[in-house]
Design brief:
Low-confidence stretches: none
Family: Belongs to the MnmA/TRMU family.
GO molecular function, one term: ATP binding
Distance between the termini: 40 Å
Protein name: tRNA-specific 2-thiouridylase MnmA
Function: Catalyzes the 2-thiolation of uridine at the wobble position (U34) of tRNA, leading to the formation of s(2)U34.
Largest sheet: 6 strands, antiparallel, barrel
Mean pLDDT: 94
Structural class: alpha/beta
EC number: 2.8.1.13
Order of helices and strands: EHEHEHHEEEHEHHEEEEEEEEEE
Length: 370
Amino acid sequence: MPEQETIAVAMSGGVDSSAVAALLRAQGHTLVGLTLQLWNQRRLSGHEGMPEAVQGRCCSIDDVYDARHVAEQLDIPYYVVNQQDRFEADVVKPFVAEYLAGRTPIPCTLCNNHLKFDQLLVTARQIGADRIATGHYARNHFDPARNRWILSRPADHSKDQTYFLFGLTQEQLSRTLFPLGEMQKPAVREMASEAGLNVAAKPDSQEICFIPGGDYSAFLKAYLDEQGEELPDSSGELVTTSGEVVGHHEGIQSFTVGQRKGLGLTSVNPLYVLSIHPDSHQVTVGADAELMSRDLRANRLNWISIPELTEDIRVTIKIRHRHTPAAATLSRAANNTVTAIFDEPQRAITPGQAAVFYQQDEVVGGGWIF
């Protein structure tokens, strides 16, 4: 890293991004703190099923206060960029549409792909910063042999966030620093504590930032109510793979593949959601073993370590954030899609989730399961 760079630090108000600011400050870089204000946590308070008072989550106003305090402690300039309208358009509305269509979206990845990195880099240019730095656990470097920027899993695999970063472009990777990529989480907290940062012991955010408590159904109803709309009637039948009707449900938006709770069924053996059919409003249920499958299809692809897929390659694939990468053969298919055949069956391959492809620790690319 060149000496005395001007770096815009993406500050979420959490311990990781705050530790990044402290680390780069100690290295002598000129820093500017940036926070994207994305969602008013209290916006839907008072709607049915939504809490009256909400503690801050990632990118909330409460976290803005924490980030500002850290910037003051480190004596660096700090700015808040209001992106609430864009966040609603690019993340919240697509999230709602996906759930109503019977798919299970990943808003954090949508945010990274379509808003966060783009806006941070735009703002960085405006204030004269050379690059941005974030608190993500990931690594990146330029490989001259391939003439490409490479994204890799971090040293601390337990905190790996590359699953949420597969949509980054070569330009974005070239202007982004991941200073925590070589560090273990306990060491990051220790560094923040030694720097005297007020957020050193702050718990990690575990929830989607705009859905307090993780109640997706309540959020969908409250958000649509605020928009003057009603939750569409998608009630229908719960059926087995043989077509037997075993119950009824109040709406497909309440389900995701692999779900067991909330089915309202009594059975000798546990039943799980196997698939969701938005056209018929049917939800297919069955035994856990029926969730296992060996193939997936993905579209809306982004390639990182290669410019495009031209032949079958061996990879490992993550089909959700906490999924252990599983060995598979990846093949090009029609209409800019890919197919993957796993060596061993995988549980609950879910439409709407991302499939991220790896070779060793490198991110080859990724796409969206359909």
